Structure formats: C-alpha cells, structure tokens
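Human: For the file, kindly provide a plain-text protein record giving the amino acid sequence and the backbone structure tokens, at your earliest convenience.
Assistant:
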Amino acid sequence: MASSLPSVSISDHDMPQSAGEGQDSEDTVIILPPPPTSDSNTVNSRTKGIFLPPPRVSLSVPTPVKSSIGINNPAQGGLFPLPNSQQIAGGSSATGNKRNKVALGKGFSLMDWIRLTKSGKDLTGVGGPRVGGKVREVTRQELRKHKKRKDAWMAINGAVYNVTHYMDYHPGGWDELVKGAGRDATDMFNEIHKWVNYQGLLEACLVGKLVDGPVVPIIQEKPPLPPPVLPSIPSGPPEPSMDFFQTDRKMTINIYTKRKGMSRENVILDNTQDILRILVFLPDKEAFVVQLQLHMKVEISPVLRVGSASGKVEVDLTKCEPGRWQGLGVALEDHLWFGSLQDLPLTHRHWTVSNITSITPDTRHIVLDPPQGTLFTVPTGHHVHIKGEVEGMEISRSYTPVTPFHLTPTMSPKSLHFLIKVYPDGALTPQLGTLSPGDQVCVSDHTGTFSLANLSSCVHIYLLAAGTGCTPIFSLLHHLGQIQANVTAKLLFFNKTQADIIWCKELAAYQDSHPWLSVVHVLSE
C-alpha cells in the first residue's frame, strides 16, 4: 500500500461544478451502484485522485424437506427479497435499476427468521394448513379480509400464506410486503424473482390453498354485443431453428436465431461428451434451448462461433470415434424450448476454486474455473447466483463477476473473478471466505438486463461505486478501454479508509494509461 495520504479541507464552494453547468449539450449517463453510509467529514488525498467528503397447480402439504431459499435479483426490488444481502446495498444498482432496501432491526436477520420457523410457534395463526385431515380451502373473499400489517395473508401460485410474522424480516420493509396482503400476489412475485423458493421460506406460514367461492349465476338480460374488430397485431421475430451436418470426424450444429447483434455472451454451452446443452439468450428477454443425448461420444472441448450480423450460432464437436452417425441423438426434456426467459429455470454448475487472495482486510478475490466442456461468458453488468448450505438450508446470494484491469498469462480467459466482502455475521460470505483452491462452488446461469447499448450515444459517463459495488464498474471501465470509445468518464469511489480501497494501485495505473478516466476517492473515515 502507498504511504499515508495527506489531509486537505474542501469547503462548499470548492465542490466540482454540477453536470450540465458550463458544458455543451451532450448526452450524459450516470451509473449508480449502492452508495455507502458515511458518518465522517475526514478528507484525504493521493497523488492521482482527489478525496472529497462523503456526500397455478394443486396444493399439497409436503413433509419437511430441505428448503432452497434464494435472494432477489440485485437489479430490482421485489416482494420477497431475503434479508441481509450484504453484497447488495440499498439505493440504485450499477446498471441503473431501483431497489428498495431498509435496515432491519436487531434480531430480524435471515438466520433469525429461519430459527423462528423451526421454533414450533404457530406462524399460520389458524393451527396449521389442515382441517379434518384435508388441506384448508381459503376463498378469495376470506383472503381479502386479511390485508393489514398485523393480519396479512397472501396467495402465491395457489397457496395462501400468513406473512404477518415475516413483516419485520422483509428487507424491502413491511410497507412493501403489505402491498400483496389480502390478494393473489402471484404476478407481483413472478415479475421480479419467481425462481426464489418461497415454499421453503414460508413453509411454516402455510394456511391452505386458494379456491374460488361459489359461482353466482349471471342473468343476461340483453344479447351479448358482437366482439370488437381488433386491428392486426404485428408478429414478432420468427422462432429460432437448427440443423446439423457431419463429416467422419466432426459434427457441426447450426442454430439460426434470426436476430442481429448476437455474441458469445449470448450463449452458454455445456458438453459432457454424452449430453449437449446450448442455451441461447435472445433479445426481448427470450431464450432458445438445444438439449440432446448425443448419438455417440464426442471430445470434451467444443468450438463455438457466433455471427453478429447473421445471428447464426455454430458449434463444432469432434467425434471420439470416426464414422457417420445415423442422427444427432435423442431429444431431451427442454430440446428446442423457446419462450420468455423468466419461464426457464436457472441451471447451476459446480465451478472449481483456482485461486483466492486477500485484497483488503475483509475482501477476497476468488477465481473460479468452469467445469470441463462448459463455455460461459458473463456480460458486463450481469450477475450469477452462488448457492451454499448453511445449517441444513440452501442459501443463495447474487454476485457480479469482475474483469481484472490486467490479465496475467496465468489467468484463464474462461475463469470468473469475484470480489467478495466477508461479513462475520453474514449468511453465506463466512463460508466463501474459507474456500481453498480445489473447492467447488455452485454457480447459476448469468442473469441481468443491463446492456452496453445504453451507452452507445453517451460522451460523458459518471460512475459511482462503494466497496465491492465496484465490480460492475471495473468491468465497464475495462470494456470502455478495449473499444477506445470517444467518451470521458469520472468515477466517484466511496470507501471507509484508504486501506479499504479495492485494487487501489491497479486503478491508479489504469487511470494513468487512460486519460479519458478520472477517479475521485471519497472516504468516510
């Protein structure tokens, strides 16, 4: 670390001119990852930077099983985000999406909620979900009676839960959760993070199943009006298709997405030699899947090519035994699936820890290598979900991979890099902080909505980062440096002390070699 930084004092009239004053009319973008809490007016300075003061199915009641509790998409707020996601602070995300997080009171963490659900206390308020040996039926009329903070029932996918006790454990605040009380909140929940295993989270709160009340006959006094004539609705892009061709040594699979602007980041490929799965992310939040039990074994390393202009995806497989195949193989469950990405369950893979180092006193740089045969690239600003088992329950947290400023010859371009702050009382980070090379970590498909196309017309970019919220920002800076865009960028980097600045020397060196970038450090202590 560099020597201690001298202190300077800056008054209000010394603050930088606000964006837009005295500048030409040009497009400007501000990207806001979660800001830190600042409680000090100490000001520091370093050689290259200025330090400013902080500114729908039938319901059954299963026997208790292991629950899989997930965390909400960090780029959005929602009905059921899990508590204490230390990786995700409140405010706005690095990709510009809003999140509503509130500080939970002492004793209302995720682990406190898990202990409460296991305590034996009747959280349903009605003695459980069964009446006379059958699952309780809750009509919509009855559901509407329970819509207050102290008496809140909620229906999700046909199941009714008493969420009254969960109010104070909800990271988005009880006032957000109560919006779904007394109603069927399925659409509200699925819109944000339908993949979360709410059954495990609210298993102890299950009241019964939602049913429609008695049908009231409708007396029709007048004949119905003829249906209105609607204008034709333009059809969307055509459905993707595929074919293949072969030689004695090679099998080539062609996927015609019929979309432009595709890249390797749009494709996740898994090859186990016997089974091939290709997931193609399409524009408009759609996806296309190829999943096959191959006719015969192939070599473990596939070759992937993606045409940006044509949208064609080509995958080359080398046959283990030369010869002609009678066909490509047998279609598996999701083969040729096409639809909305939110309807496709996430796939998890076991990645291997190749390196782990300490960057700051509480931050670890963890490098993960993919399984053999997997081709996986995370787009800038997107994230993955990492799962781990804590006290017999599966806990999931979202992390954004980071692109190092300088890749060394020993770094594999296929690896994922993470900067993870370890919290002693965190749900998952203490486990991640003890990883060693060779350990395995369960990582999901990448998710997210941020697109670099949002910045295509910008000439001034303002970036704000705090702590490990710098990960998408660093990846964005790396991208801007590669494309040599005609932009200027200013990064405001918030931390507690100089020792807490992640990759401080690397960032300074990157700033030296890229004159379009200026960095301002803001320290709270």
Summary: Residues 471-483 form the longest helix (13 residues). Residues 1-32, 34-99, 215-220 have pLDDT under 50 and may be disordered. Helices lie at 110-117, 140-144, 174-177, 186-193, 198-201, 429-433, 471-483, 504-513.
